[in-house]
Design brief:
Length: 232
């Protein structure tokens, strides 16, 4: 009932963009962890796949092995879809035999695309091709444009409802976590929210406590100057 792209960016960041005719798809499906990887759990979603899969990647296991472990421990494996990428850009994916057509997954250099209950295979192909052809854009914008291309190719065959974008960069907390839970055109709304985040939120986030600067910037005048500088 969903399609998504998981990817590693040029600076080592990880992202997931996902869309579905399912309320609040961004709550359960996309997962990422800085320095570790990203994954999406779909179809009859198993929310445990997110934290467990990232823990296993963090332990040094490769994505193919992680997928096999997740499958082995889940009696509902044939109703699940999961795909992931690790810090080395390696891909692991599983589409269960009981997932509803059209369903499948494909991988490219630094990304994976997967979906189920789709209009057809062109959804994944278009998502993939758009991501590969937009290297001139920011990582977040590439994910959004890829998702939009998948929708233009038919998307979820039941229609549209929700979409989400989640990106982890250098910190334990996400760089971006934007959700559209119920909207007649969720991907267009997700893109609007991303543009809105560039006005103040993204510049403000550069002032937050970080690994490199544990206290962050606490001078409010400096924070406002930073927001004004980067939001122009």
């Amino acid at each position: 009932m969903t399609w998504s792209i998981v990817a590693r960016g040029p600076e080592g960041e990880f992202g997931v963009a996902v869309a579905s005719r399912f309320f609040a798809v961004g709550m359960l499906c996309p997962h990422a962890r800085s320095g570790v990887g990203a994954l999406s759990t779909q179809a009859l979603v198993n929310p445990h796949f997110g934290p467990l899969g990232l823990d296993l990647l963090s332990s040094g296991l490769d994505p193919l092995t992680v997928v096999e472990i997740l499958k082995k421990e889940d009696q509902g494996r044939e109703h699940r879809q999961v795909h992931m990428i690790d810090a080395q850009g390696r891909i692991g994916a599983h589409t269960g035999s009981a997932c509803i057509e059209w369903c499948g997954h494909l991988a490219g250099e630094g990304f994976s695309v997967a979906g189920n209950m789709l209009a057809g295979p062109d959804v994944l192909q278009s998502t993939s091709e758009k991501f590969k052809s937009t290297k001139h854009l920011s990582f977040a914008e590439r994910l959004l444009e890829a998702l939009h291309a998948g929708e233009a190719a038919g998307g979820d065959k039941r229609g549209r409802q929700a979409a989400a974008l989640r990106i982890h960069a250098t910190e334990d907390y996400p760089f971006l976590d934007i959700r559209v839970d119920d909207h007649e055109d969720p991907i267009a709304e997700l893109k609007r929210l991303y543009r809105k985040s560039q006005e103040r939120f993204q510049p403000f986030a550069t002032c937050l406590p970080s690994r490199a600067r544990p206290a962050g910037i606490i001078d409010r005048a400096v924070i406002e100057a930073t927001v004004q500088k980067f939001s122009k």
